[in-house]
Amino acid sequence: MNLFETTAYAAEAGGAGGDAGLINLLFIGGFVLIFYFLLLRPQNKRRKEHQALMAGLDKGDEIVTAGGVVGVVNKVEDDFVKVQVSEGVEMRIQKTAVGATLPKGTIKGLDNG
Predict the structure, then answer these.
(1) How far is CA 7 from CA 3, 11, 12, 13, in A?
(2) CB atoms < 10 A from the CB of 23, how many?
(3) Structural domain of residue 40, as residue ranges?
């Protein structure tokens, strides 16, 4: 028995290294899908609906703006809409500020109430 001599044994290599890369790739792919379905898809859908709303504005439509102003469209221009908010009072509003169209007769119902 020699006190200065040591024996070293090598451990066998593990086979799990290739699977870890595949699992990481699946996690990244899953996060991308979750990101798309929870954030990007609904935002694109809302944007398309708002563009259709802006393109479909016509004279006589009753609208409400993002700021809460209610009125009737008198004239549609390229980027702006002239809205009658009261008798003899017209405002020029950007089309992008239009929040929604209202059913016909909504403003008369608000005035009577």
Answers:
(1) 11, 13, 16, 19
(2) 10
(3) 15-55
Do residues 57 and 95 touch, judged by C-beta distance below 8 A? Answer: yes
Answer whether residue 4 is part of any domain.
no
Of 54, 67, 64, the residue nearest 106 (C-alpha): 64
Number of structural domains the chain divides into: 2
pLDDT tens track for 24-79: 999 999 999 999 999 999 999 999 999 999 999 999 999 999 999 999 999 999 99
Q: Copy the structure tokens of residue 18.
A: 């290739």
Strand partners, 94: 80
pTM of the model: 0.65
- Of 70, 83, 73, which Cα lies nearest the Cα of 110? 70
